[in-house]
Amino acid sequence: MNFPSWRTYLDESRSYYYSLFLILPLAAMYEVGTMYLFSNQPYELRNAADALLRFILEQIGVAPGYYFSIIFVGILTVVLGFGIWREKRQPLNAMIFPMILLESLGWGTVLFFALQFIANLTLTIPTNHTGLVQVNLALGAGIYEELMFRVILIAALSFILRRGFHWQDASANWTSLLGAAVIFAGFHLFAEVFQWHIFIQRITGGILLGALFLKRGYGVSAYSHIFYNLIILISFN
Predict the structure, then answer these.
(1) Which of 20, 67, 123, 174 lies most in the core, judged by the most C-beta atoms within 10 Å?
(2) How many domains does the chain divide into?
(3) Distances (CA, A) of 116 to 105, 182, 224
(4) Which residues are CB-neighbours of 70 under 8 A, at least 6 positions away?
(5) In a domain, 134, yes or no
(6) Does residue 135 register a pLDDT over 90?
C-alpha cells in the first residue's frame, strides 16, 4: 500500500474516522490498566477529567463500578461514530496511522520545549506513584482531557456563540478555544496552590492543544498530549 499524498494525509488524518480507531485501543488499554494496577487496592487512581466525568454520571444515577469503563468507551464510540457518519469518509488507509503517530510525536516534542521556554516548567502528572501507574495516567490525560476540554467544551462553547449570538464559525471556534484553555487551566487548580506563572503556562498549553484539535483533529491532539506526558516521564524520572 502506497503512502498518501501530503494533502490527502492532512485531510484524512484530522477526521473522526481515524480518531475512532486511534483512540478506542488507548481507552481500552487505560481502563484495563487501571483495573489491573489497582486490583488489590481500595481505590483507583484516575485522570482528574476521567474522574469528573464519572462523578457526573454517578450524580445522574448511573451505577458506579466497572460499568463506568464500558460507558466511557461507549461514549467515545458514539461521539466519534457520529463524526464518522457526518463526514462519510472513504475506507481507511492503513499507512495514515504511522504518519499520525510520527506527527503527534513531533507536536508533543514541540509542546514540551515550548512550555519549557515559556516558564521553564512542565505540565506535570501530579502523583507519587511511578512506572506503569504514571504511564497509565499519561494515557488517561490524553484521552479524557482532550475529550472534555477540546472535543466537548470547544464544540459546546462554539455552538452557543454561533446559535445564541450569531457569530461566524471561525470567530466562534477560536474564541471557544481560548475559553476552553482558561477552563482547562482552572480545572487543574483543584489539585494545587494557585501560582500565576503556572496558571498562564497551563493556559498556553491549552491554547496549543486546542489549536491542534481545531486544525488537526482529536486523534492528533490526544496522541500529542500523550507523547508530551511520556516525554515528561522520561525526562524527569
Answers:
(1) 123
(2) 1
(3) 17, 19, 16
(4) none
(5) yes
(6) yes
125 phi and psi, to 5 degrees? -100, 105
Q: Is residue 156 part of a domain?
A: yes
Whole-angstrom distance, CA of residue 7 vs CA of residue 116? 32
Angle CA(149)–CA(154)–CA(156) in degrees, nearest 5? 110
> CA dist 236 to 123, 144, 195, Å?
12, 23, 21
Q: Are the C-beta atoms of 230 and 223 separated by less than 8 Å?
A: no
Cell of 168: 461566524
1 lies in a domain? Answer: no
**In this predicted structure, what is the pLDDT of residue 193?**
79
- pLDDT (average), residues 156-165: 96
pTM to 2 decimals?
A: 0.88
* Interval 54-108: pLDDT, tens: 777 777 776 555 677 777 677 767 766 776 677 666 677 889 999 999 999 999 9
Question: What range defines the domain where residue 158 resides?
Answer: 6-236
Residue 25 lies in a domain: yes
Residue listed under C-alpha cell 488507548: 26
Say how far apart CA 105 and CA 110 lie, in whole Å. 9
- Do residues 206 and 182 make contact, with C-beta atoms less than 8 angstroms apart? yes
184, three cell numbers: 482547562
The helix-helix angle for 218-236 and 196-216 (nearest 10°) equals 140
